[in-house]
Design brief:
- This is Beta-glucosidase.
- GO terms for molecular function: beta-glucosidase activity.
- It is an enzyme of class 3 (hydrolase).
- The chain has a single domain, classed as TIM Barrel, CATH 3.20.20.80.
- The chain is built from 15 helices and 13 strands.
- The longest helix has 24 residues.
- The chain starts with 9 loop residues before the first strand and ends in a 7-residue tail after the last helix.
- The chain binds beta-D-fucopyranose.
- Beta-D-fucopyranose (FCB) binds next to loops.
């Protein structure tokens, strides 16, 4: 039995510019921090980069046709800031805007509602050279960029996400250094989170001024499980939960930070910041992949917590535990805790990496992805029955793509991509998702 969602529920797919577009030097695009990071030896598992990726910049027509074949009603993509402002400041590069204009028109012609992310991690290198997200001035630059894009596209883009996963940018990009810009600053990375949240708020204001009517977010949330019921593990899990989840959702929904973190942020928070961050949201986007288990670290360690493997569950080929129940429970808790402050939820990313490739008949039998998506959609359907208002599901990802520090070694797509020939082969999960969409109840009247 296919998962059944309420009438009007939006099925979509999700991608990001640097992961699929390629064409990094075309039509005036400037370098981004990911171009720089990939060029540093040892940063990317297979030594690759997004230089060509899925060549989506030249093949977007074919890729939108794949979405039409699925029958999806929505598509979440990101706009590459260095295509719009090659150095991150100054006038718009018209050729860059034109690309997204064509993409949006092509989506609309296919009956697909566009959801655009402004920042999915590809900061113009020119801004990084001046301190990047550690520099409060980057927020002003981001507001300018949001205004440029909004003025050009707000008449046709249905939904907007200013910043993708500010927690990942903070922790992996600046805390641990496994993502661009590769800074390992541990707790000194926290100002980045505050600046990204302010950037979210300022961009939301600029987009609304430009006529945007649906503005949300795409925050990565993971249920945090303490490793045991010992006080120190529970305390470590609570602190990590505040850093991974709490500061972003409470920042955006309530305009304040969890108590545990306030002392760590006092020196960067200025009067009025909370109000700037807390903008009215038309939807709250959740990117969900898996729960995390946290224990207290030994006193000598650099960090007060340790992330342990969640054991006892199947895993994806990335090693991520598959726990759809944790999504259901987290959504129910989220609603119970924030009730009136919480707008409708959209699952802006959910998906899994499995390395299935075409067999001798050209068939990609990725039953494990079908099982994953089926279980997660059913978890969402149950959460809706329990009163959580969830309006859509954007599967990560439409096509296999450049998975950041893992390069091309992790395949998340409903469609297989041969990165030599750029051939696209819909997997079994693509057919399954198409059938799920076709089986949904229709709107009445
Ligand atoms: C998310 C990112 C997305 C993709 C998935 C697997 O954290 O937003 O770009 O890499 O993970």
């Amino acid at each position: 039995m296919h998962p059944l969602l309420p009438p009007g529920f939006v099925f979509g797919t999700s991608t990001a510019a640097y992961q699929i577009e390629g064409a990094v030097s075309e039509d005036g695009r400037g370098p981004s921090i990911w171009d720089t990071f990939c060029a540093e030896p040892g940063r990317i598992a297979d030594g690759s980069s997004g230089e060509v990726a899925c060549d989506h910049y030249h093949r977007f027509d074919e890729d939108v046709a794949l979405m039409e074949g699925l029958g999806t009603q929505g598509y979440r993509f990101s706009i590459s800031w260095p295509r719009i402002q090659p150095t991150g400041r100054g006038p718009a590069n018209v050729a860059g805007l034109d690309f997204y204009d064509r993409l949006v028109d092509r989506l609309l012609a296919g009956g697909i509602s566009p959801m655009a992310t402004l920042y999915h991690w590809d900061l113009p290198q020119g801004l990084q050279d001046d301190g990047g997200w550690l520099n409060r001035d980057t927020i002003e630059r981001f507001a300018d960029y949001a205004a440029i894009v909004g003025e050009r596209l707000a008449d046709r883009v249905a939904h907007w996400v200013p910043v993708n996963e500010p927690n990942v940018v903070t922790l992996l990009g600046h805390g641990l250094g496994t993502h661009a810009p590769g800074r390992a600053m541990i707790f000194d990375a926290l100002p980045v989170a505050h600046h990204l949240l302010l950037a979210h708020g300022r961009a939301a204001i600029a987009l609304r001024e430009a006529g945007a009517t649906s503005i949300g977010c795409a925050n990565n949330h993971a249920p945090i499980w303490p490793a045991s019921d010992k006080d120190e593990d529970i305390g470590a899990a609570k602190l990590f939960d505040a850093i991974w989840n709490g500061m972003f959702l409470e920042g955006m929904l309530l305009g304040r930070y969890p108590n545990d973190l306030r002392p760590l942020l006092e020196h960067v928070v200025q009067p009025g910041d909370g109000a700037t961050i807390r903008q009215p949201l038309d939807f709250y986007g959740v990117n969900y992949y898996n729960p995390m288990k946290v224990a207290a670290a030994p006193e000598t360690a650099e960090l007060p917590f340790e992330i342990l493997d969640v054991i006892g569950y199947p895993t994806t080929d990335f090693g991520w535990p598959i726990v759809p129940d944790a999504l259901r429970e987290w959504l129910i808790m989220f609603r119970a805790r924030y009730r009136a402050a919480l707008p409708p939820i959209v699952i802006t990313e959910s998906g899994c990496s499995f390395d299935d490739v075409p067999d001798e008949h050209g068939v990609v039998d990725d039953q494990r992805r079908i099982d994953y998506l089926d279980a997660h959609l059913k978890a969402i359907a149950t959460a809706i029955q329990r009163g959580v208002d969830i309006r859509g599901y954007y599967c990560w990802s439409l096509i296999d793509n450049f998975e950041w520090a893992e390069g091309y070694t992790q395949r998340f797509g409903l469609v297989h991509v041969d990165f030599e020939s750029q051939a696209r082969t819909p997997k079994k999960s693509y057919e399954w998702y198409r059938d799920v969409i076709a089986a949904q109840p229709q709107h009445e009247g």
